[in-house]
C-alpha cells in the first residue's frame, strides 16, 4: 500500500467536516430523542449516529482500503492498529448538543502506525475550523463577519508564545466525564480540589478551572493559547486524535495523565496537554505533583 497523501486527506476531512456540520446545525436536538450508553450522563442522539454514518460512508468511498474507528460504531475489543485509520467523533460534546450549549465539535483525525498525522476539528455553531497535518502547522479558520468572509490564522495566536509560569498563573481545562463513582472519579475530584485550594492549604491556587464539555475543542483552546493546561481521563481516541495534531503542530506538549508518563499513546485514555511556551516540562512536573491518586482505564 502506498504511503498516505496527508495533504489530500487533510483537504478531504475539511470537506467532510463541513457537510457533517450542516447536518448538525439542521438537526433538532431533543432530550426525548437521546439515549444513554453507560449512564444518564453518557448521552447519544440519533444525530450522532446519522452524522457518523455520513462521515464513514464518505471516507470509505474515497479510501476503501483504510480503516475507520468511530465513537458510535465502536464495539468492545476494537483496537487502533498500525494501518491507516480515520479516527472520528461525529459530535464531540453530545451533552452540550442536547442542552443547546454551542461548545460542540466534529472531530476527524487520521493515524498511520498509530501516530496522529492529520486532524480537523469543526464547531458548526461558531464556524471555527481547526486544521493541522504533520509538519504543516496548525491553523484556525474563523468567520469575521457576514460580508467579510473568513480569516486563516496560524496557531498559537500569540507568536512567540508567552513563557509558562507555575500553576498559580494558569487557566486549566478539566472534565468530570460520565464515570461518577470509583477510583477515577475520586482521583479527579480530589485533584480538582487541590488545584484550586489556597497554597496555605497545600493547593496550587490555579486561576480557575473550566469544564466545557468537548475534549477536541479543549485541545484546540490549548493550541490557541487561551487555555494553559488541559487534564483529561476517560475519553477515547476519537475525542483526542484530531485535537492532538492541532496541539502538536501549534508547538504544544501532550503527555500522559499520570505522573511520569512522558510517552503516551493515542488510545491511552488519560492525557495532559500544555500550550506552547518555555517552561512546559517544568509545568508538567508541577501538575503531576498535584494529582491525588492515579487514573486507571
Molecular structure report:
With 297 residues, the protein is α+β, with helices and mostly antiparallel strands. The protein has helices at residues 6-25, 46-62, 94-98, 182-196, 215-224, 237-249, 280-288; strands at residues 34-36, 43-45, 67-70, 85-92, 105-112, 115-122, 129-133, 138-145, 149-154, 171-173, 208-210, 229-233, 253-256, 270-274. It has a 7-stranded mixed beta sheet, with helices on both faces. It starts with 5 loop residues before the first helix and ends in a 9-residue tail after the last helix. The mean pLDDT is 94.
The end-to-end distance, rounded to whole angstroms, is 34 Å
Order of helices and strands: HEEHEEHEEEEEEHEHEHEEH
Label the structural class. Answer: alpha+beta
Number of beta-strand segments:
14
Largest sheet: 7 strands, mixed
How much β-strand is present in the residues?
15-25%
Uncertain segments: none
Strand neighbour order, sheet with most strands: 3-4-5-6-7-8-9
Mean pLDDT: 94
Amino acid at each position: 500500500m502506498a504511503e498516505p497523501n496527508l495533504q489530500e486527506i487533510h483537504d478531504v476531512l475539511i470537506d467532510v467536516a463541513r457537510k457533517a456540520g450542516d447536518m448538525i446545525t439542521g438537526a433538532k436536538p431533543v432530550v426525548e430523542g437521546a439515549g444513554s450508553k453507560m449512564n444518564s450522563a453518557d448521552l447519544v442522539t440519533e444525530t450522532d449516529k446519522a452524522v457518523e454514518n455520513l462521515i464513514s460512508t464518505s471516507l470509505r468511498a474515497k479510501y476503501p482500503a483504510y480503516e475507520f474507528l468511530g465513537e458510535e460504531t465502536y464495539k468492545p475489543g476494537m483496537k487502533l492498529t498500525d494501518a491507516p485509520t480515520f479516527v472520528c467523533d461525529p459530535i464531540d460534546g453530545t451533552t452540550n448538543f442536547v442542552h443547546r450549549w454551542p461548545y460542540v465539535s466534529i472531530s476527524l483525525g487520521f493515524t498511520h502506525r498509530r501516530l496522529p498525522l492529520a486532524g480537523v476539528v469543526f464547531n458548526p455553531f461558531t464556524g471555527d475550523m481547526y486544521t493541522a497535518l504533520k509538519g504543516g502547522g496548525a491553523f484556525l479558520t474563523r468567520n469575521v463577519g457576514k460580508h467579510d468572509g473568513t480569516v486563516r490564522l496560524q496557531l498559537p495566536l500569540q507568536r512567540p508564545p508567552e513563557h509558562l509560569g507555575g500553576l498559580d498563573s494558569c487557566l486549566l481545562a478539566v472534565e468530570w466525564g460520565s464515570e461518577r463513582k470509583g477510583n477515577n472519579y475520586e482521583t479527579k475530584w480530589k485533584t480538582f480540589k487541590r488545584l484550586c485550594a489556597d497554597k496555605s492549604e497545600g493547593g496550587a491556587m490555579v486561576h480557575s478551572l473550566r469544564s466545557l464539555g468537548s475534549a477536541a475543542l479543549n485541545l484546540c483552546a490549548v493550541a490557541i493559547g487561551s487555555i494553559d493546561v488541559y487534564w483529561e481521563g476517560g475519553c477515547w481516541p476519537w475525542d483526542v486524535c484530531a485535537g492532538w495534531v492541532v496541539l502538536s503542530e501549534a508547538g504544544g506538549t501532550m503527555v500522559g495523565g499520570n505522573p511520569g508518563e512522558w510517552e503516551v499513546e493515542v488510545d491511552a485514555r488519560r492525557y495532559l496537554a500544555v500550550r506552547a511556551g518555555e517552561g512546559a516540562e517544568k509545568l508538567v512536573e508541577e501538575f503531576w505533583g498535584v494529582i491525588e491518586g492515579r487514573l486507571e482505564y
